[in-house]
Specification:
The protein is of the alpha/beta class and 467 residues long. It folds into two domains: 284 residues, 4-Layer Sandwich (Purple Acid Phosphatase, chain A, domain 2); 121 residues, Orthogonal Bundle (Flavocytochrome C3, Chain A, domain 2). It is 29% helix and 17% strand. The strands form two sheets. The protein has a seven-stranded mixed beta sheet with strand order 1-2-13-12-3-4-5, with no helix packed on it. α1 packs antiparallel against α7, α2 packs antiparallel against α7 and α9 crosses α10. The chain is elongated, with a radius of gyration of 26 Å. Bound molecules: heme C (HEC) (4 copies).
């Protein structure tokens, strides 16, 4: 987190009026009477749901399906390195949403933020496409998470058509509350609060940002006239902090997002308390959350929740495939635009596998037949051989002095070669000696990381490539 920097956005202080009484009285706290778990579907019943005060008496009943995402962390499309991790991506998300929309009418599509990841030029290009995709998906509310400020808030403003929401910071283009009305007169309100410590660091907290609880109360108060049938609170903070909002009168559903690292585990099981429900979206857009809220007469609510994996069986939406192609084209343009700069750093550091072959021919044959010997072609086949986010593990020395520049400039540095594991060997190749490159075992973990090689186990893997 680097929001303490001097280019951190200025935040206006919102004047808070004296708080009125809560919308619902505490004496109407509902109790939990049952929880049934059907496979991965959670069904919750609540009894004596807060009976609204007479002036807010509701006679509407019906069902609202909340579809929630978050923690996408730049995962426009999964890399495809490992089958288990080949889930999610916007091409599948769109197909999924079209199907859901065909099946139900009252849908509330929400995102809890942390859509972006790398503060790099490519990361920014990706962020632009992520938002383009989200506009096409017609989200109802999208809250920015701490990761989403990496390109500044002007970037958020430039991307038109996103229904941004954040209630505890008053800042363009963020709305404080959003209300959606459905066919049968049902109405849902959405409020969103982010932990200021995550957004700006403690240095900026305090007077510049409204304390989260106060922001929630003030928004609820402003909703009084609307009398929504469902109030959803989006939070962006650590789980423990967000769980505390289960005590807030007037809120029905809490959806909490936030991810520090893209390998952090996330508890996706719902928590029920006081007739309210708390859920979290999974990591990297691999699964979509579905929370059905059944609203009975006089506001009585029950919930059904499940996570839907966007696995390989879900078709790719053609419009999103095209959008991804556009992104890919921009990445390719960036690759060529940076070519001369990268060429300038040309140095000779690596001997290349061809040279090793002259003295270690048997080992070379073993290597050539392994998947390391074809790692570049793997990218080429899927039109990804110019994407730095892929090259880094599929060639020799990407981003290192003397490393891979391009297929044309450095054809001999394609693939996961000997020197990726044994280290640069120019010297060894001209004056060979035993004892060289023995730390090779340590190299695996640079690339065989959880998200790209979840089954990695040194002994098993080494066994298939040993030489
Ligand atoms: C000119 C011949 C030659 C070239 C070229 C060469 N090596 Fe060697 N390499 C040797 C010799 C000789 C040894 C010592 C073998 C021995 O005595 O066990 C050795 C040893 C090694 C060892 C250590 C083995 C051990 O247990 O001590 C590694 C690792 C190694 N080479 C990797 C490479 C790599 C990688 C390349 C290409 C970048 C390469 N070599 C190029 C001749 C060469
Ligand atoms: C520079 C990154 C990198 C390093 C370092 C690396 N690998 Fe790999 N490895 C890859 C890539 C990329 C692939 C997939 C290549 C392909 O199929 O295109 C792969 C594939 C493999 C496979 C084939 C897996 C399968 O399912 O068939 C094995 C086995 C393997 N690596 C073992 C190792 C071991 C053991 C080490 C350490 C001694 C190691 N790798 C170090 C990048 C790396
Ligand atoms: C952190 C390193 C890393 C990065 C970054 C990376 N890969 Fe990989 N890739 C691997 C490893 C390791 C494997 C082998 C995984 C295994 O079998 O355990 C692999 C395997 C693959 C495979 C082979 C899958 C198969 O079963 O045939 C494809 C395709 C692939 N990667 C594409 C990509 C693309 C596209 C990108 C960029 C979006 C990318 N990789 C980025 C490390 C990486
Ligand atoms: C994926 C990583 C990786 C790649 C790629 C790789 N090696 Fe190795 N290599 C190892 C590991 C690990 C060992 C075992 C080291 C040990 O036992 O400490 C090893 C051992 C060796 C040895 C010593 C063998 C012995 O008999 O002691 C030589 C020589 C060697 N490699 C040469 C090469 C050459 C040449 C290439 C390319 C053609 C290559 N290696 C590619 C990881 C790799």
């Amino acid at each position: 987190m680097n929001h303490q920097k001097k280019d951190a956005p200025m935040i206006e202080i919102r004047t808070l009026k004296t708080l009125k009484r809560f919308r619902r009285s505490a004496s109407h706290l509902p109790g939990v009477t049952g929880l049934v778990i059907l496979g991965s579907i959670f069904v919750f019943f609540t009894s004596c749901m807060a009976a609204p005060k007479s002036d807010h008496m509701k006679k509407r009943s019906g069902e609202i399906l909340i579809v929630y995402s978050g923690n996408t962390l730049g995962e426009l499309k999964p890399c495809g390195c490992a089958r288990e991790e080949d889930q999610g991506g916007f091409e599948k998300r769109m197909s999924y949403l079209k199907k859901v929309r065909a099946g139900s009418e009252n849908i509330l599509l929400l995102d809890t933020g942390d859509s972006f990841k790398e503060p790099t030029r490519q990361g920014k290009v990706k962020a632009k496409y992520l938002l383009k995709a989200m506009v096409k998906m017609k989200y109802d509310a999208v809250m920015p998470g701490d990761h989403d400020f990496v390109y500044g808030n002007s970037f958020l403003k430039e991307q038109k058509g996103i229904p941004w929401i954040l209630s505890n910071i008053e800042m363009e283009p963020l709305a404080g509350v959003r209300v959606k009305s459905f066919g049968e007169g049902l109405k849902a309100a959405i409020i969103a609060v982010a932990d200021p410590d995550l957004l700006y660091g403690s240095r900026h907290s305090g007077d510049k940002i409204i304390p989260v609880r106060e922001a929630v109360r003030s928004q609820l108060r402003q909703l009084d006239g609307e009398s929504p049938d469902l109030v959803v609170l989006l939070t962006h903070m650590e789980r423990e902090k967000a769980l505390a909002f289960l005590d807030v009168e007037g809120v029905d559903v809490i959806v909490n997002g936030h991810m520090e690292k893209d390998t952090d585990p996330i508890d996706m099981e719902p928590v029920l308390k006081n007739g309210r429900i708390f859920v979290q979206p999974g990591p990297r857009g691999q699964k979509m959350g579905e929370l059905t809220v059944m609203i009975g007469p006089e506001g009585k609510k029950s919930f059904e929740q499940k996570m839907v994996p966007l696995g390989s069986k879900i078709a790719l939406d053609p419009e999103m495939v095209q959008l991804y192609e556009e992104y890919n084209k921009e990445v390719e343009d960036l690759f060529f635009a940076s070519l001369s700069e990268r060429k300038g750093k040309k140095l000779t550091v690596f001997a290349t596998d061809k040279v090793c072959k002259t003295c270690h021919p048997k080992i070379h044959t073993t290597w050539e037949q392994s998947r390391h010997g074809h790692a570049y072609n793997t990218l080429r086949k899927i039109n990804k051989a110019f994407d730095p986010e892929c090259l880094i593990c599929h060639v020799v020395g990407w981003n290192e002095p003397g490393g891979f520049v391009s297929e044309i400039d450095t054809p001999d540095l394609r693939n996961v070669q000997c020197e990726v594991c044994h280290g640069p060997a120019l010297e060894h190749a001209s004056a060979p000696a035993p004892g060289f490159g023995q730390d090779a075992k340590q190299a695996c973990k640079k690339c065989h990381v959880k998200n790209h090689s979840p089954r990695f186990n040194f002994n098993k893997y080494w066994d298939t490539i040993k030489h």
